[in-house]
Design goal:
Largest sheet: 6 strands, antiparallel
Strand content: 25-35%
Oligomer: single chain
Length: 262
Amino acid sequence: AEKQAFLGKISTTELQKNSLKCVDSAAQAEVCLLPKEGAWTLTNPGDHRPLTAPVAFHEPEKLLSQLKSISRWAFAKNLQKNPASEIPDEAFDIRISQNGQVVFPENDGSYTLALPEKNKAGQPAGRLEIHLTNGAAEPLYFGLAYLASLFAIETSLFWDKPYTVRQLEPGNSHEKILALSLENYISEFNWQAEQCHFLVIAAASEFSLELLEQEDLQEPVKSKNLETYRGISTLSKNAALKPEDWKTCLLTFNIVNPAYRA
């Protein structure tokens, strides 16, 4: 019934145009739509906690816009290494540090971050340092996109200008210090951790990240008066993505929620 109600508002053709489709069960889905109190809520399969703010039944275009953003975010996250690339894996010589201490990846390759400070909203906060060295024998262009838990894709954090990529000579490095804080809704809805990603792309020729850039979706809230702060920012210290030879490296970060209740 819920599927039919949804398709009554948004056509199958419109979904297909945006690489979306309805499936018959939560087990087949990447995200689910939960109808409740006159609105659709986006959730993970098998979980009723909201991923974004609910969208009223009478706003199908707003719902479709959210689904488009999630589809683009998933595309970026799942962007595969070019199998024909001659760029070696060693090109991605990346060191992650937190407040000056090197952070080593877990067995699954992800990084666990426990933020030691507090922001003005009382949420865990801290610094993240990303140190990138070109480990290849040839000059390469590098771009970095931040994939936020609220489905934004930001391309300005590493090089300070949107869409920008820069060339690094072999052995040359660039470091960026970022301010991180746990998003409010992670604590409010008792998530164990907030997961975000950094997509690093290396290419032999110059390219642009413009087509990846998009804003956060509206976060879910319980407390109407809760002051919110952006989960990431920088600290001081118009073409598509079509280079001929490119390769990707996805960094996954799990920011621990110290208030999580099992």
